Amino acid sequence: MIEESKKIWMDGEFVNWADANVHVLTHTLHYGTGAFEGIRCYKTGKGSAIFRLQEHVARLFDSCHILNIKCPFTPEQISRAIIDSIKINKLRECYIRPLIYIGYGAMGLFIKDNPVRVAVAVWPWGAYLGEEGIKNGIRVKVSSFTRLHANITMTKSKTCGDYVNSTLAKSEALASGYDEALLLDTNGYVAEGTGQNIFIVRNGVLHTPPLPSVLEGITRRSIMEMAKKQKIEVRETYFTRDEIYIADEAFFTGTAAEVTPIREVDGRSVGGGKPGPVTKKLQGLFFKIVKGEAPAYKAWLTTI
Ligand code: PPE
């Protein structure tokens, strides 16, 4: 169960957690046209700080632009709502979920004049794939579901409806006894997890699938920048599932999943079944950065 906080920001004002409700004929509830973000706020030595706030808010507006949704608030107002939500709920560390959705009005697929509604919820959310997963790695299964194609619902927006693809894949993987699913693209190359980007390490070089079939993950981009600064070569390139089987290391990145090592794929151990040195180095640096312990990266944090 979700760990409840006190207040949720809805359309410009705070309401009690229990009163943050919508009508059952809310358009997005039926058809999935909406966009959301996942952002994290961490406890640092100088108070709480949000990791890459501007980038997440910019992607939220990009998602709306892709979906042709006009958000009635500005990016500055949404950023303010996020900061105020953390403050009003007195949380030092939390997950942040802004959601822009089509409200009650007309039904049917043509979105006429239905109101565009906005909510920001915050709540404490620990390690998404478990503390044990962060430390020792997780077991992953290649999904029987294909990742969405750019001409199906597109891949650069965090569209609510896109996550049907993810929930189907996730349920299938968990029912098969795995921790997470890995989806392949329409050409059969590795795309991403249900809510994570993937990296593999081969001969000291970091590889990650190129953007066409995956979400432009903000953690993905951060890891690439961090790796380059560490003089680790990064290649955006297509690769196959069996390249992961024989990779030296593999890991997932995402706001919720943070940096989670992958120790097994399809019943085959990856890199000896434990997190490797490159993964550990980047994971260690990532947690230092988000906790405000890496001054070179302080521009990525918004202290509140
Ligand atoms: N791919 C997908 C499909 C995805 O949903 C996410 C984030 C990522 C990659 C990583 O993106 P970024 O967070 O910018 O590094 N998934 C969000 C939702 C997870 C959920 O279960 O809800 C997240 O991590 O917040």
Keywords:
alpha+beta; nine-stranded mixed sheet; eight-stranded antiparallel sheet; 8 helices; 28% helix
Please give the radius of gyration in angstroms: 19 Å
The number of E-state strands comes to 17
**DSSP helix fraction:** 25-40%
The average pLDDT is: 97
End-to-end distance, in Å? 27 Å
- Ions, cofactors and other bound molecules: ligand PPE
Largest sheet: 9 strands, mixed
SSE succession? EEHEEEHHEEHEHEEEEHEHEEEHE
Spans where pLDDT lies below 50 across 5 or more residues: none
Secondary-structure-based class equals alpha+beta
User: How large is the count of helical segments?
Assistant: 8
**What spatial form do the alpha-carbon principal axes imply?**
globular
Strand content: 25-35%
